[in-house]
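Entry type: protein chain
Record version: 2
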Amino acid sequence: MTKDFVTKGLAPMKQLPTQLGDPEAVKAVLKHAAFTIALESGDEVQAMAMYLPAMDGKSSYDQFFELIKNGILENFVFSCTEIQKKTGSNRKIDAEELLQKALRKLSRHTAKGELGELILFTLLDVYLGAPKLLSKVSMKTNPRMPVYGADAVHGQFHDGAFRLYLGESKLQKDFKAAAKKAATSISSAKAKYDDEFDLLDSYIDFPNIDDETESEILSILNPFSESHQADIVHSPCFIGFTNPILIATDGGFDKFLNAYNLIAKEHFKEFYDQIREYGLPANESVLLILPFTCVDNLVDEFVEYMGIEN
């Protein structure tokens, strides 16, 4: 069955507001290539192939890093309530002070994982319209410690039901190896859903949260209630991978898209094959991919550009 790689239209009971204030600015830099795929299994899946600007045959990150510095980072790190409190209180803090506080939560030692999580957060908010429900990075007491459990906890009302997204992110040179690790992590996150719910029960937060909606969502998500449904949990996965040959494709943008189309189809198959190996429903995992000239250089440039010192 052939599916377009576009975000399906929502028909929600109610729409949760997203967190990032200017999604079009993000889409102008972190772009989506619309391809199609036919899985041999016939599974209907959602997947998105993303790309960033390139210059002189290499990935160019400055525009995206500037977006991260000018609003994405603090929204990724902190809860909406904390941001509103800091920027709306009598002791208002300016954008630079909030950015510096967010940067102190990051570390050179964990930057690769945190950048992957940040990109996943951005894609879920901007392209899937699913706001973050839990800010794990803000809970870190040591910036060198990684986040445990799901890399992203987002949610939305979709087609009259609520979806909880327990997201996984991988930034790795080899896509196939990343897909295998991601499938393992997705399976583990689903098995430990009770732990994620306990965190949500204590710290759930999203833009313009109100008591009624919070209570409704927690009731739906409660794994100990008789009304809880296992298929409420979906598993979006972001994989950033190294492919300098693709980025350096000669012959203009159309040739790049043609080359990317072939690679994307191969990678989509590799990922969903791994998902099926774990007995997981393919239609409950949204795949988001993004090629780079070199993942390690990406992380180094991110650390340098943002001024991460820990």
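Comment: The first helix runs from residue 23 to 27.
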